[in-house]
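SEVERITY: medium
COMPONENT: batch folding queue
REPORTER: lab tech (J.R.)

DESCRIPTION
The queue accepted two submissions in a row. Attaching both inputs and their returned C-alpha coordinates so the on-call engineer can compare them side by side.

ATTACHMENT 1
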Amino acid sequence: MANISMKMLAKELRLSVSTVSKVFTDSHEISEQTKEKVLALAKKLNYVPNPYASSLRKRQSKTIAVVLPEVADSFFSVAINGIESVAREKGYHVLIYLTHELLEREQAILTDFQSGRVDGVLISVSNETSTDQHITEMMQRGIPVVFFDRVCEETATTRITTNDRDSGYLAAQHLIEQGCKRIAYLTISESLSISRNRLTGCKQALAAHHLPFRDSDLVLCTDNEAENLAIIKALLEKKNGPDGIIASVEKLTAAVYLACKELKIAIPGKVKVISFSNQSTAPILNPSLTTITQPAFEMGKMAATVLFNSLRKTQAQLRSETIVVPSVLVTRESTGK
Protein backbone atom coordinates (compact mmCIF):
# COMPACT_ATOMS: atom_id res chain seq x y z
CA MET A 1 0.00 0.00 0.00
CA ALA A 2 1.51 3.35 -1.06
CA ASN A 3 1.30 6.80 0.57
CA ILE A 4 0.18 5.61 3.97
CA SER A 5 -0.83 8.55 6.15
CA MET A 6 -1.33 8.97 9.87
CA LYS A 7 -5.02 9.53 9.18
CA MET A 8 -5.27 6.11 7.50
CA LEU A 9 -3.58 4.43 10.46
CA ALA A 10 -6.05 6.11 12.82
CA LYS A 11 -9.04 5.00 10.73
CA GLU A 12 -7.78 1.41 10.53
CA LEU A 13 -7.31 1.24 14.31
CA ARG A 14 -10.41 3.28 15.13
CA LEU A 15 -8.35 5.84 16.99
CA SER A 16 -8.15 9.62 16.74
CA VAL A 17 -5.37 11.14 14.62
CA SER A 18 -4.09 12.99 17.69
CA THR A 19 -3.73 9.70 19.58
CA VAL A 20 -1.71 8.15 16.75
CA SER A 21 0.39 11.30 16.53
CA LYS A 22 1.19 11.11 20.24
CA VAL A 23 2.36 7.52 19.83
CA PHE A 24 5.10 8.68 17.43
CA THR A 25 6.24 11.33 19.93
CA ASP A 26 6.29 8.68 22.67
CA SER A 27 3.82 10.66 24.77
CA HIS A 28 3.26 9.50 28.34
CA GLU A 29 -0.47 10.12 27.79
CA ILE A 30 -0.78 7.00 25.61
CA SER A 31 -0.86 3.50 27.11
CA GLU A 32 1.78 0.94 26.20
CA GLN A 33 -0.91 -1.33 24.72
CA THR A 34 -2.08 1.39 22.32
CA LYS A 35 1.48 2.26 21.39
CA GLU A 36 2.20 -1.37 20.52
CA LYS A 37 -0.92 -1.60 18.31
CA VAL A 38 -0.07 1.58 16.40
CA LEU A 39 3.61 0.74 15.93
CA ALA A 40 2.79 -2.81 14.81
CA LEU A 41 0.41 -1.58 12.10
CA ALA A 42 2.84 1.15 11.05
CA LYS A 43 5.56 -1.47 10.62
CA LYS A 44 3.23 -3.78 8.69
CA LEU A 45 2.21 -1.02 6.27
CA ASN A 46 5.73 0.47 6.05
CA TYR A 47 4.53 3.80 7.40
CA VAL A 48 7.33 6.31 8.13
CA PRO A 49 6.30 9.37 10.19
CA ASN A 50 7.10 12.72 8.59
CA PRO A 51 9.07 14.80 11.12
CA TYR A 52 8.53 17.98 9.11
CA ALA A 53 4.72 17.82 9.26
CA SER A 54 4.61 17.99 13.05
CA SER A 55 7.43 20.52 13.04
CA LEU A 56 5.41 22.87 10.83
CA ARG A 57 2.40 22.58 13.13
CA LYS A 58 4.61 23.54 16.06
CA ARG A 59 6.30 26.25 13.99
CA GLN A 60 9.59 24.38 14.31
CA SER A 61 11.86 23.10 11.57
CA LYS A 62 13.81 20.64 13.79
CA THR A 63 16.85 22.03 11.97
CA ILE A 64 19.75 24.19 13.08
CA ALA A 65 22.22 26.02 10.86
CA VAL A 66 25.98 26.14 11.24
CA VAL A 67 27.46 29.15 9.45
CA LEU A 68 31.20 28.90 8.80
CA PRO A 69 33.82 30.87 6.87
CA GLU A 70 35.21 27.64 5.38
CA VAL A 71 35.66 23.91 5.99
CA ALA A 72 39.21 23.55 4.69
CA ASP A 73 40.44 24.48 8.17
CA SER A 74 40.47 21.28 10.21
CA PHE A 75 39.21 23.19 13.27
CA PHE A 76 35.80 23.62 11.66
CA SER A 77 35.50 20.05 10.40
CA VAL A 78 36.23 18.76 13.92
CA ALA A 79 33.86 21.32 15.47
CA ILE A 80 31.06 20.13 13.13
CA ASN A 81 31.49 16.61 14.53
CA GLY A 82 31.01 18.01 18.03
CA ILE A 83 27.89 19.90 16.95
CA GLU A 84 26.35 16.90 15.21
CA SER A 85 26.98 14.63 18.20
CA VAL A 86 24.54 16.80 20.17
CA ALA A 87 22.09 17.45 17.30
CA ARG A 88 21.63 13.73 16.61
CA GLU A 89 20.82 13.11 20.24
CA LYS A 90 18.20 15.88 20.15
CA GLY A 91 16.63 14.63 16.90
CA TYR A 92 17.69 17.69 14.89
CA HIS A 93 19.11 18.09 11.40
CA VAL A 94 22.23 20.21 10.82
CA LEU A 95 22.62 22.40 7.73
CA ILE A 96 26.10 23.73 6.92
CA TYR A 97 26.43 27.13 5.23
CA LEU A 98 29.74 28.59 4.00
CA THR A 99 30.37 32.33 3.77
CA HIS A 100 33.76 31.95 2.04
CA GLU A 101 35.01 34.80 4.26
CA LEU A 102 32.53 37.25 2.67
CA LEU A 103 30.39 39.55 4.83
CA GLU A 104 27.88 40.00 2.02
CA ARG A 105 27.40 36.23 1.79
CA GLU A 106 27.04 35.98 5.57
CA GLN A 107 24.37 38.70 5.57
CA ALA A 108 22.41 36.99 2.76
CA ILE A 109 22.45 33.64 4.57
CA LEU A 110 21.19 35.11 7.83
CA THR A 111 18.49 37.12 6.06
CA ASP A 112 17.25 33.88 4.50
CA PHE A 113 16.94 32.33 7.97
CA GLN A 114 14.42 34.98 9.04
CA SER A 115 11.70 33.11 7.14
CA GLY A 116 11.83 30.36 9.78
CA ARG A 117 13.95 27.92 7.82
CA VAL A 118 15.93 27.03 10.96
CA ASP A 119 15.21 27.04 14.69
CA GLY A 120 18.63 28.32 15.74
CA VAL A 121 22.07 29.26 14.44
CA LEU A 122 25.65 28.48 15.39
CA ILE A 123 28.04 30.90 13.71
CA SER A 124 31.74 31.60 13.31
CA VAL A 125 31.94 34.94 11.53
CA SER A 126 33.86 35.82 8.36
CA ASN A 127 37.09 37.81 8.47
CA GLU A 128 35.19 40.76 6.93
CA THR A 129 32.61 40.90 9.72
CA SER A 130 33.06 44.03 11.82
CA THR A 131 29.38 44.78 12.56
CA ASP A 132 26.66 42.59 14.05
CA GLN A 133 23.56 44.35 12.69
CA HIS A 134 22.55 41.43 10.46
CA ILE A 135 22.96 39.07 13.40
CA THR A 136 20.95 41.13 15.88
CA GLU A 137 18.16 41.58 13.32
CA MET A 138 17.77 37.82 13.09
CA MET A 139 17.86 37.44 16.88
CA GLN A 140 15.10 40.06 17.18
CA ARG A 141 12.90 37.74 15.09
CA GLY A 142 13.24 35.07 17.76
CA ILE A 143 15.98 32.95 16.21
CA PRO A 144 18.68 32.27 18.84
CA VAL A 145 22.34 32.58 17.88
CA VAL A 146 25.43 31.15 19.57
CA PHE A 147 28.93 32.16 18.46
CA PHE A 148 31.89 29.81 18.52
CA ASP A 149 35.57 30.46 17.78
CA ARG A 150 35.17 33.69 15.76
CA VAL A 151 32.77 35.90 17.67
CA CYS A 152 31.27 39.38 17.78
CA GLU A 153 32.13 40.43 21.30
CA GLU A 154 29.49 43.18 21.49
CA THR A 155 26.53 40.92 20.57
CA ALA A 156 24.25 40.08 23.50
CA THR A 157 24.37 36.31 23.27
CA THR A 158 26.57 33.38 24.31
CA ARG A 159 30.07 33.05 22.85
CA ILE A 160 32.15 29.85 22.98
CA THR A 161 35.85 30.66 22.57
CA THR A 162 39.25 29.46 23.53
CA ASN A 163 41.79 31.44 25.57
CA ASP A 164 43.16 33.32 22.55
CA ARG A 165 45.15 35.98 24.39
CA ASP A 166 46.80 33.44 26.70
CA SER A 167 47.48 31.18 23.70
CA GLY A 168 49.13 34.04 21.79
CA TYR A 169 51.30 34.71 24.84
CA LEU A 170 52.13 31.01 25.13
CA ALA A 171 53.11 30.76 21.46
CA ALA A 172 55.44 33.77 21.62
CA GLN A 173 56.91 32.75 24.96
CA HIS A 174 57.73 29.29 23.61
CA LEU A 175 59.57 30.80 20.63
CA ILE A 176 61.47 33.16 22.94
CA GLU A 177 62.47 30.26 25.19
CA GLN A 178 63.77 28.51 22.08
CA GLY A 179 66.03 31.49 21.34
CA CYS A 180 63.92 33.64 18.97
CA LYS A 181 64.33 37.42 19.19
CA ARG A 182 62.47 38.64 16.07
CA ILE A 183 58.99 37.11 15.88
CA ALA A 184 56.58 37.70 13.00
CA TYR A 185 52.85 37.29 13.47
CA LEU A 186 50.87 36.15 10.41
CA THR A 187 47.15 36.92 10.26
CA ILE A 188 44.30 37.05 7.73
CA SER A 189 42.36 39.79 9.56
CA GLU A 190 43.03 42.77 11.79
CA SER A 191 39.36 43.07 12.80
CA LEU A 192 38.55 39.54 14.01
CA SER A 193 38.58 39.37 17.80
CA ILE A 194 40.52 36.10 17.84
CA SER A 195 43.26 37.66 15.70
CA ARG A 196 43.44 40.78 17.88
CA ASN A 197 43.50 38.76 21.10
CA ARG A 198 46.19 36.37 19.88
CA LEU A 199 48.29 39.31 18.70
CA THR A 200 47.83 41.07 22.05
CA GLY A 201 49.11 37.99 23.87
CA CYS A 202 52.09 37.76 21.52
CA LYS A 203 53.02 41.41 22.15
CA GLN A 204 52.66 40.96 25.91
CA ALA A 205 55.08 38.03 25.89
CA LEU A 206 57.63 40.02 23.89
CA ALA A 207 57.30 43.00 26.23
CA ALA A 208 57.73 40.73 29.26
CA HIS A 209 61.07 39.61 27.81
CA HIS A 210 62.05 43.17 26.74
CA LEU A 211 61.88 42.31 23.05
CA PRO A 212 60.40 44.70 20.45
CA PHE A 213 57.46 44.10 18.15
CA ARG A 214 57.92 46.17 14.99
CA ASP A 215 55.12 47.26 12.65
CA SER A 216 56.66 45.05 9.99
CA ASP A 217 56.32 42.03 12.29
CA LEU A 218 52.55 42.09 11.78
CA VAL A 219 52.03 40.40 8.40
CA LEU A 220 48.56 40.63 6.86
CA CYS A 221 47.91 37.69 4.53
CA THR A 222 44.94 36.87 2.28
CA ASP A 223 42.71 33.93 1.32
CA ASN A 224 44.79 33.36 -1.82
CA GLU A 225 47.52 30.71 -1.47
CA ALA A 226 49.74 32.15 -4.21
CA GLU A 227 49.55 35.64 -2.69
CA ASN A 228 50.38 34.28 0.75
CA LEU A 229 53.41 32.44 -0.61
CA ALA A 230 54.69 35.68 -2.17
CA ILE A 231 54.03 37.67 1.04
CA ILE A 232 55.87 35.16 3.24
CA LYS A 233 58.79 34.82 0.84
CA ALA A 234 59.19 38.61 0.85
CA LEU A 235 59.13 38.55 4.67
CA LEU A 236 61.82 35.87 4.88
CA GLU A 237 64.03 37.61 2.32
CA LYS A 238 64.28 40.81 4.37
CA LYS A 239 67.71 41.68 5.75
CA ASN A 240 66.44 41.61 9.33
CA GLY A 241 63.81 38.96 8.76
CA PRO A 242 62.20 36.93 11.55
CA ASP A 243 63.78 34.00 13.31
CA GLY A 244 60.39 32.93 14.62
CA ILE A 245 56.95 32.84 12.97
CA ILE A 246 53.49 32.51 14.52
CA ALA A 247 50.78 31.50 12.03
CA SER A 248 47.56 32.65 13.69
CA VAL A 249 45.43 30.44 11.40
CA GLU A 250 46.07 26.96 10.07
CA LYS A 251 45.79 27.83 6.36
CA LEU A 252 49.02 29.87 6.52
CA THR A 253 51.18 26.93 7.62
CA ALA A 254 51.57 25.39 4.16
CA ALA A 255 52.68 28.73 2.70
CA VAL A 256 55.34 29.12 5.41
CA TYR A 257 56.75 25.63 4.81
CA LEU A 258 56.69 26.07 1.03
CA ALA A 259 58.35 29.50 1.21
CA CYS A 260 61.12 28.10 3.40
CA LYS A 261 61.61 25.18 1.02
CA GLU A 262 61.84 27.41 -2.06
CA LEU A 263 64.25 29.81 -0.34
CA LYS A 264 66.24 26.91 1.17
CA ILE A 265 65.64 28.24 4.70
CA ALA A 266 65.94 25.52 7.32
CA ILE A 267 63.16 24.93 9.86
CA PRO A 268 63.92 25.13 12.78
CA GLY A 269 67.60 25.97 12.13
CA LYS A 270 67.11 29.47 10.70
CA VAL A 271 63.46 30.10 11.49
CA LYS A 272 61.18 28.42 14.01
CA VAL A 273 57.47 27.97 13.23
CA ILE A 274 54.40 27.56 15.41
CA SER A 275 50.79 27.52 14.20
CA PHE A 276 47.30 27.63 15.63
CA SER A 277 46.18 24.35 14.10
CA ASN A 278 44.12 21.21 14.57
CA GLN A 279 45.43 19.45 11.48
CA SER A 280 46.05 15.74 11.99
CA THR A 281 49.09 15.90 9.68
CA ALA A 282 51.04 18.20 12.04
CA PRO A 283 53.07 15.30 13.54
CA ILE A 284 54.13 13.95 10.12
CA LEU A 285 55.17 17.21 8.45
CA ASN A 286 58.87 17.61 7.83
CA PRO A 287 59.77 18.91 10.35
CA SER A 288 56.76 18.07 12.53
CA LEU A 289 54.78 21.19 13.39
CA THR A 290 54.52 22.75 16.84
CA THR A 291 50.90 23.80 17.37
CA ILE A 292 48.51 25.63 19.61
CA THR A 293 45.75 23.03 19.39
CA GLN A 294 42.21 24.24 19.99
CA PRO A 295 39.59 22.00 21.63
CA ALA A 296 37.49 22.04 18.44
CA PHE A 297 35.20 19.08 19.21
CA GLU A 298 34.52 20.33 22.73
CA MET A 299 33.81 23.88 21.50
CA GLY A 300 31.36 22.61 18.87
CA LYS A 301 29.66 20.32 21.36
CA MET A 302 29.37 23.07 23.96
CA ALA A 303 28.01 25.59 21.44
CA ALA A 304 25.34 23.10 20.34
CA THR A 305 24.45 22.22 23.93
CA VAL A 306 23.95 25.89 24.82
CA LEU A 307 21.77 26.42 21.73
CA PHE A 308 19.57 23.39 22.38
CA ASN A 309 19.13 24.36 26.03
CA SER A 310 17.82 27.68 24.74
CA LEU A 311 15.49 26.03 22.21
CA ARG A 312 13.86 24.03 25.00
CA LYS A 313 12.70 27.31 26.58
CA THR A 314 9.76 29.26 25.24
CA GLN A 315 11.52 32.60 24.84
CA ALA A 316 14.84 31.18 23.57
CA GLN A 317 16.72 33.71 25.69
CA LEU A 318 20.50 33.31 25.81
CA ARG A 319 22.79 34.89 28.36
CA SER A 320 25.34 37.42 27.15
CA GLU A 321 28.47 35.62 28.28
CA THR A 322 31.74 34.17 27.05
CA ILE A 323 32.57 30.55 27.84
CA VAL A 324 36.28 29.81 27.46
CA VAL A 325 37.67 26.34 26.66
CA PRO A 326 41.50 26.37 26.94
CA SER A 327 43.85 25.43 24.08
CA VAL A 328 47.02 23.37 24.45
CA LEU A 329 50.60 23.90 23.28
CA VAL A 330 51.96 20.79 21.56
CA THR A 331 55.71 21.11 20.99
CA ARG A 332 57.31 19.36 18.02
CA GLU A 333 60.37 19.69 15.78
CA SER A 334 59.52 22.99 14.03
CA THR A 335 60.50 24.96 17.15
CA GLY A 336 63.39 22.76 18.30
CA LYS A 337 66.75 24.26 19.25
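ATTACHMENT 2
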Amino acid sequence: MDRLGRNVVDCLNTGYKMRDEGKLLVTYGHEGPWDLNDTTDENRFTMEAWGAQMELRAIQRRNRSATVKTRAAGRPKGKPSYGFRYVRVVMGGKIDHVELHPHAATVIRLVARRILADPERNTSSSEAARLNRAGEPAPVDHLIGSPNLDCAEE
Protein backbone atom coordinates (compact mmCIF):
# COMPACT_ATOMS: atom_id res chain seq x y z
CA MET A 1 0.00 0.00 0.00
CA ASP A 2 2.84 2.40 0.79
CA ARG A 3 3.94 2.30 -2.86
CA LEU A 4 0.49 3.35 -4.04
CA GLY A 5 0.74 6.64 -2.20
CA ARG A 6 2.50 8.12 0.78
CA ASN A 7 -0.46 9.85 2.35
CA VAL A 8 -4.13 9.08 2.84
CA VAL A 9 -5.34 11.58 0.23
CA ASP A 10 -3.06 10.21 -2.53
CA CYS A 11 -4.04 6.61 -1.81
CA LEU A 12 -7.75 7.38 -1.72
CA ASN A 13 -7.60 9.48 -4.88
CA THR A 14 -5.75 6.71 -6.72
CA GLY A 15 -8.07 4.00 -5.40
CA TYR A 16 -11.26 5.87 -6.29
CA LYS A 17 -9.91 6.87 -9.69
CA MET A 18 -9.12 3.24 -10.50
CA ARG A 19 -12.57 2.17 -9.24
CA ASP A 20 -14.31 4.86 -11.33
CA GLU A 21 -12.34 3.79 -14.43
CA GLY A 22 -13.28 0.16 -13.88
CA LYS A 23 -9.70 -0.96 -13.21
CA LEU A 24 -8.69 -3.59 -10.70
CA LEU A 25 -6.60 -2.46 -7.73
CA VAL A 26 -4.43 -5.22 -6.29
CA THR A 27 -1.88 -4.76 -3.51
CA TYR A 28 0.38 -7.06 -1.52
CA GLY A 29 -1.20 -8.39 1.65
CA HIS A 30 -4.79 -8.13 0.46
CA GLU A 31 -6.65 -11.16 -0.87
CA GLY A 32 -7.72 -10.39 -4.43
CA PRO A 33 -8.58 -6.95 -5.81
CA TRP A 34 -9.87 -4.15 -3.60
CA ASP A 35 -13.59 -3.43 -3.85
CA LEU A 36 -14.01 0.17 -2.75
CA ASN A 37 -17.80 -0.12 -3.14
CA ASP A 38 -17.72 -2.54 -0.18
CA THR A 39 -17.58 -0.63 3.14
CA THR A 40 -15.32 -3.21 4.79
CA ASP A 41 -12.77 -3.07 1.96
CA GLU A 42 -13.08 0.71 1.81
CA ASN A 43 -12.38 1.05 5.55
CA ARG A 44 -9.44 -1.35 5.43
CA PHE A 45 -8.05 0.48 2.39
CA THR A 46 -8.30 3.79 4.28
CA MET A 47 -6.59 2.32 7.37
CA GLU A 48 -3.72 0.92 5.30
CA ALA A 49 -3.35 4.27 3.55
CA TRP A 50 -3.16 5.92 6.97
CA GLY A 51 -0.49 3.38 7.97
CA ALA A 52 1.52 4.27 4.85
CA GLN A 53 1.29 7.95 5.78
CA MET A 54 2.46 7.27 9.35
CA GLU A 55 5.36 5.20 8.00
CA LEU A 56 6.44 8.03 5.70
CA ARG A 57 6.32 10.54 8.55
CA ALA A 58 8.45 8.23 10.72
CA ILE A 59 11.02 7.83 7.92
CA GLN A 60 11.15 11.61 7.41
CA ARG A 61 11.62 12.15 11.16
CA ARG A 62 14.48 9.59 11.30
CA ASN A 63 16.17 11.17 8.26
CA ARG A 64 15.94 14.67 9.74
CA SER A 65 17.30 13.40 13.04
CA ALA A 66 20.20 11.62 11.32
CA THR A 67 21.04 14.76 9.34
CA VAL A 68 21.07 16.91 12.49
CA LYS A 69 23.23 14.34 14.29
CA THR A 70 25.79 13.99 11.48
CA ARG A 71 26.03 17.76 11.03
CA ALA A 72 26.54 18.26 14.76
CA ALA A 73 29.30 15.63 14.67
CA GLY A 74 30.95 17.41 11.73
CA ARG A 75 30.57 14.46 9.39
CA PRO A 76 29.33 14.82 5.84
CA LYS A 77 26.09 13.25 4.73
CA GLY A 78 27.15 12.47 1.19
CA LYS A 79 29.45 14.23 -1.22
CA PRO A 80 29.55 17.99 -1.57
CA SER A 81 27.82 19.42 -4.63
CA TYR A 82 30.08 20.11 -7.59
CA GLY A 83 31.72 23.50 -7.12
CA PHE A 84 31.89 23.15 -3.33
CA ARG A 85 34.23 21.40 -0.92
CA TYR A 86 34.32 20.44 2.73
CA VAL A 87 36.86 22.29 4.86
CA ARG A 88 38.43 20.80 7.98
CA VAL A 89 40.52 22.94 10.30
CA VAL A 90 42.32 19.84 11.53
CA MET A 91 43.26 17.06 9.10
CA GLY A 92 40.86 14.15 9.63
CA GLY A 93 38.81 16.21 12.08
CA LYS A 94 35.26 17.50 11.91
CA ILE A 95 34.09 19.42 8.87
CA ASP A 96 34.22 23.04 9.91
CA HIS A 97 32.36 24.52 6.94
CA VAL A 98 31.63 24.24 3.22
CA GLU A 99 33.22 26.62 0.75
CA LEU A 100 33.36 27.16 -2.99
CA HIS A 101 35.99 25.08 -4.76
CA PRO A 102 38.11 27.75 -6.49
CA HIS A 103 38.50 25.98 -9.83
CA ALA A 104 35.27 23.95 -10.03
CA ALA A 105 33.11 26.95 -9.10
CA THR A 106 34.69 28.97 -11.92
CA VAL A 107 34.10 26.15 -14.41
CA ILE A 108 30.43 25.72 -13.46
CA ARG A 109 29.80 29.48 -13.73
CA LEU A 110 31.42 29.58 -17.18
CA VAL A 111 29.32 26.64 -18.37
CA ALA A 112 26.15 28.30 -17.07
CA ARG A 113 27.01 31.58 -18.81
CA ARG A 114 27.73 29.80 -22.11
CA ILE A 115 24.45 27.85 -22.03
CA LEU A 116 22.37 30.88 -21.05
CA ALA A 117 24.02 33.07 -23.71
CA ASP A 118 23.16 30.70 -26.58
CA PRO A 119 20.96 27.75 -25.55
CA GLU A 120 20.47 26.69 -29.17
CA ARG A 121 24.19 26.04 -29.75
CA ASN A 122 25.32 25.28 -26.21
CA THR A 123 23.62 22.42 -24.42
CA SER A 124 24.68 20.55 -21.31
CA SER A 125 25.87 17.69 -23.56
CA SER A 126 27.90 19.95 -25.84
CA GLU A 127 29.44 21.66 -22.82
CA ALA A 128 30.36 18.28 -21.29
CA ALA A 129 32.03 17.29 -24.58
CA ARG A 130 33.87 20.63 -24.71
CA LEU A 131 35.13 20.19 -21.15
CA ASN A 132 36.28 16.63 -21.93
CA ARG A 133 38.19 17.83 -25.01
CA ALA A 134 39.81 20.55 -22.92
CA GLY A 135 40.94 17.94 -20.39
CA GLU A 136 38.88 19.46 -17.60
CA PRO A 137 38.55 17.07 -14.63
CA ALA A 138 35.10 15.55 -14.17
CA PRO A 139 33.18 16.27 -10.94
CA VAL A 140 34.20 12.88 -9.53
CA ASP A 141 37.87 13.70 -10.24
CA HIS A 142 37.58 16.58 -7.79
CA LEU A 143 36.64 14.09 -5.07
CA ILE A 144 39.04 11.24 -5.84
CA GLY A 145 42.73 11.72 -5.30
CA SER A 146 42.59 15.44 -4.66
CA PRO A 147 44.53 16.14 -1.46
CA ASN A 148 43.15 19.67 -1.28
CA LEU A 149 39.53 18.57 -0.98
CA ASP A 150 39.85 16.19 1.96
CA CYS A 151 36.24 15.09 1.61
CA ALA A 152 36.42 11.33 1.21
CA GLU A 153 34.81 9.86 4.31
CA GLU A 154 34.30 6.27 3.20
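NOTES FROM REPORTER
The two ends are 35 Å apart (CA to CA).
No errors were logged for either attachment.
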